[in-house]
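Q: My labmate handed me this sequence with no annotations at all. I'd like to see what the chain might look like in three dimensions before we decide whether it's worth expressing. Could you predict it?
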Amino acid sequence: MEYETAQGVTVPALGLGTARMRGDTCRRAVLEALDLGYRHLDTAQMYGNEAAVGEAVGAADADRDEVFLTTKILPRNLARRDLLDSFNDSLDRLDTDYVDLLLIHAPSDTVPLAESLAAMNELQAEGEVRHVGVSNFDVAETEAAIETSETPIITNQVRYNPLHHQDELLDYCRSADVLLTAYTPLAKGQVFEDERLVTLGQRYGKTVAQVTLRWLVQQPGVVTIPMSSDPAHLAENLDVFDFELTEAEMATVDGLAQ
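A: Here is what I predict for the chain of 258 residues:
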């Protein structure tokens, strides 16, 4: 496993996303991932699977302090009292005393950002949240979060893959020492249709998914959270740290968005 660091916080460069997974499917996938060596898990109130994630973490051989666990606050829960109450419910569902990272799932049109971040900072002061961040924020919104929070914003989790770039945001995040966490890294399967990625994979004996994930984790300041419940795909997605794309090959993948 490789790691990225922002604001002095070290985060596994590749984790498991759990959106759209529920119940036993989610529980089995998380347990399998932890058995394979994943140590970065991403869930959210919106996903309806915090309990399944928590059960898997509790059943795994990995100690809780080895797992970097992220959850996110629903936009409707961003007012201070709602945030604090809903987060306590998240802790209960996750069956843990703390989360490593708490994110605002998306900007609110009704609740001031300062109110939400102040509540998250309270949770940090109490030790129930180790770090805070945001999700689906643009450059201006990310800048506002950094200026508003009493504690460092360590990541902005956004859609980012070879077919959907976030170049301006990534440049800003790097300048501000904020990680960009890429969700939907395989573009919901669309990357598998590109012959250039097939060709790149053949050079290294790797799949299109592995080339795509390697392109992501090879970029400074980027971590990614591919989602899968299939044991073979979970193993495949993790097996991207034994090869490196050349600058020309990185540029080829960069060009797919054009």
